[in-house]
Structure formats: structure tokens, C-alpha cells
Write a structure and sequence with these properties.
The protein has two domains: 118 residues, Rossmann fold (3-Layer(aba) Sandwich), CATH 3.40.50.2300; 95 residues, Arc Repressor Mutant, subunit A (Orthogonal Bundle), CATH 1.10.10.10. The two termini are 25 Å apart. It is of the alpha/beta class and 227 residues long. It is built from eight helices and twelve strands. Helix content is 42%, strand content 22%. A hairpin with a 2-residue loop joins strand 6 and strand 7.
Length: 227
């Protein structure tokens, strides 16, 4: 999993990062609500661990700002663990609410459940569309302009990731982790080779190219979102 950890306690952030990294997950650490929103806009995460009490914009304010926008599932962490706090957090859109102090094994289990639930929701959406491009997630098939496009397993997975996040730049590292499931030498050209083949299949013969390369950054479907 790619986890965004949002907490103003730098010691706790570092401890969480080390524990999650030991189980194969990668983390980004930020310490206030405004930076959390920026991170969610700029990168793709599987889940957000969000502290309730933050300087400036608190956790509830972050949840309110995310309402109506596409974002990863959020688990709230807080020393404020009354029933009224839990209910309010869940009503604002959090997937789960966990009081501090917490058991790390329980936290990891809850994260697994949240991310698994979110992936099942994505699969049930079945069909992704962008412009005249369509992908059936269950059948693992793609069409553009009504024409069927034959793609390999890796190509369809790469295309699905791009279509799930249109307008967002996906880094090579993220694509490697999501599609191949483990880390590679950052200098590898594996992603570039596969994206080159995918682009040839998706964009060849069409006047409007959909897959864009941002040199030294990553890849994007459509125009990059303006921030």
C-alpha cells in the first residue's frame, strides 16, 4: 500500500512509517491539514491515516474539503475517542476511526480491510471511460472509438490505473509498485517500454493523443490538472 500519514507528532509519524515499511508499504509523512490536501491532489495513495487534531486545518476540516472529490479512503486517528467524535468522523466521510493509543497489528488489519473494500468498489464500477476510450475492468478489455484494442495483462493494468486517475501524473515508481507489485531499480526502463507499446495501441490512428509523457516525472491520461 501507499499510505499518506498526516500527524503533527513527528515521532509518531516516523514510528508508523517504520512499522508500515517493515510490512512492505510505502509512506509519505505530512504534518498539517493543508499539506495533506496538497499531497492528495498531487499523488495517488491507497489510504490516508489522518490525525483529528492538527495545526491550522484539523482532520474534520480536511474531510469536509474532500467531500465531492475523488480521494483515497481515510482512517481517522485521534486521542479524542468518544462516541460523538467517532460518529461525526464517520458522518464526514472517514472509512474508520481509531483511538490513540492503538495496537499496530489492529491498525494494519483495519487498513487491509479498508483498502480491500475500496478496491472491490472500483471493480464493481466495471466500466471506465475517458473521451472515446472505454475499459471493462472485469472483462479486461478495451475499446477506442468503438474499435476493440488487444492489450496484454500488464498493458490493461497500466491503462486502468491511468483511467482511474485522469489528469493526474502517475510516477514510474507508483506504476511499477501497482502493476508489478514490488520495487525495481529506479533506472529501469520497464515502464517506458510498456507505456510506449500501450500508447501505440491506444493513440495510433487517432488525431487526439490521450496518453502523455512528462519527462523525468511520469505519465498522465489527458491534460494535466491545473492546481
Amino acid at each position: 500500500m501507499r499510505v499518506l500519514v498526516v500527524d503533527d507528532d513527528s515521532t509518531l509519524c516516523q514510528w508508523l512509517s517504520e512499522k508500515l515499511h517493515a510490512h512492505g508499504h510505502s509512506c509519505r509523512l505530512v504534518h498539517d491539514g493543508a499539506l495533506a490536501l496538497e499531497a492528495i491532489e498531487q499523488e495517488v495513495y491507497d489510504v490516508v491515516l489522518l490525525d483529528r487534531m492538527l495545526p491550522g486545518m484539523d482532520g474534520f476540516s480536511v474531510l469536509r474539503a474532500l467531500q465531492g472529490r475523488q480521494h483515497p479512503p481515510v482512517m481517522l486517528l485521534s486521542a479524542l475517542d468518544r462516541d460523538i467524535d467517532r460518529v461525526m468522523g464517520l458522518e464526514l466521510g472517514a472509512e474508520d476511526y481509531m483511538g490513540k493509543p492503538f495496537n499496530m497489528n489492529e491498525l494494519r488489519l483495519r487498513l487491509d480491510i479498508i483498502v480491500g473494500r475500496d478496491k472491490r468498489r472500483s471493480e464493481h464500477s466495471q466500466v471506465l471511460t475517458f473521451a472515446d476510450l472505454k475499459v471493462d475492468c472485469l472483462q479486461r478489455s478495451a475499446w477506442r472509438g468503438g474499435k476493440r484494442i488487444e492489450l496484454t495483462d500488464k498493458e490493461i493494468k497500466l491503462l486502468m490505473l491511468l483511467m482511474e486517475h485522469p489528469g493526474k501524473v502517475l510516477s514510474r515508481t507508483l506504476l511499477l509498485e501497482r502493476v508489478w507489485g514490488y520495487q525495481f531499480d529506479p533506472q529501469t526502463n520497464l515502464i517506458d517500454v510498456h507505456l510506449s507499446k500501450l500508447r501505440a495501441k491506444i493513440d495510433k490512428g487517432f488525431s487526439l493523443p490521450l496518453i502523455r509523457t512528462l519527462r523525468s516525472v511520469g505519465y498522465c491520461l489527458g491534460e494535466v490538472e491545473k492546481r
